[in-house]
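Deviations from the work plan: none for this task. Representative record:
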Amino acid sequence: MEYFPPALEALTEQFARLPGVGKKSAQRLSFFVLGLPDEEARAFAEAIVTAKRTISLCPVCRSFTEGEGLCPICQSSKRDESTVCVVADPKDVAALERSREYNGRYHVLHGVISPMNHVGPDDLHIKELVERVSAGGVQEVIMATNPTTEGEATAMYLSRLLKPFGVKVTRLAYGVPVGGQLEFADDATLTRALEGRREM
Amino acid sequence: MEYFPPALEALTEQFARLPGVGKKSAQRLSFFVLGLPDEEARAFAEAIVTAKRTISLCPVCRSFTEGEGLCPICQSSKRDESTVCVVADPKDVAALERSREYNGRYHVLHGVISPMNHVGPDDLHIKELVERVSAGGVQEVIMATNPTTEGEATAMYLSRLLKPFGVKVTRLAYGVPVGGQLEFADDATLTRALEGRREM
């Protein structure tokens, strides 16, 4: 027997579809929305519709952009366009931007090559990257895919694809994470950290 | 510098307002919604608007209901109306219904008395409960507020308020949780479990 009205169950089901939201959290979110003032609930619904309607992928880097135009980073004349950082996902753009260390452009693949999940090179925005590099002007491509097996394989694949164009292809450094503890670092990480040691 | 378009940031901010959703999860939820097919994103937005527009509080028990009518439980002729279970929150109705053990009606207070948070009896749906009981027909009121200090105090307050009407007022049993381990039970729980022991 249903103990809540169908419109409430329907909202809970919508929340339960979101990644990382279980049945109970979904119910809590529904109750929260019902408790919002009318105009705030409407603003929430409108933010979904507006984002979905106006946001697309940047024609150059495939990160998110408004409408048909370039994304904020590709638009900016302050960003060095001779350096392109390749990431798997838009959230990696956000992570790198938070470091405030990088001043080049990006290229978002929207995934990594993963034969297990039937994701091949053609399912990613690789063709656009090759076109960007072959058009000239790019001097360095930084591979910033995750340091996982699939991230590595994707970086390796792209490196082979891009080197013939005469660009420098680099990879993020491996090592012990800042603020971490040596005793918890795995062997592979420690090996890479030793290999990559620098004079102080 | 903003690296994502404003409509995306606006959606992320909306998600970040939800309880238990941090900045990073909010961003993940935004990306997920952007990745949905158009009609599914629209269905999500519409579920919010529809729930907000059509759902109100049941005129009898103050649980959620559709429009002006009675909630599914108050509507059902199969539920024993001589027993009323008092809970703090609609999610407690869901928890009790999941047990499939209870066949009476409910009364939802929408909170507990909490002087620390400036919540007094007048801020809760207590007047409606007293009216229900004074109208006659109710034989037992089960206090199912949480076994916390505030839940106890609220149960105690209501018990004193309702007993003059000649109804039986009961409280959920305390004891060790089923499937739990004795060594992790706190002293107060063990004391209550011993006091409430039953012959086998």
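The radius of gyration of chain A is 22 Å.
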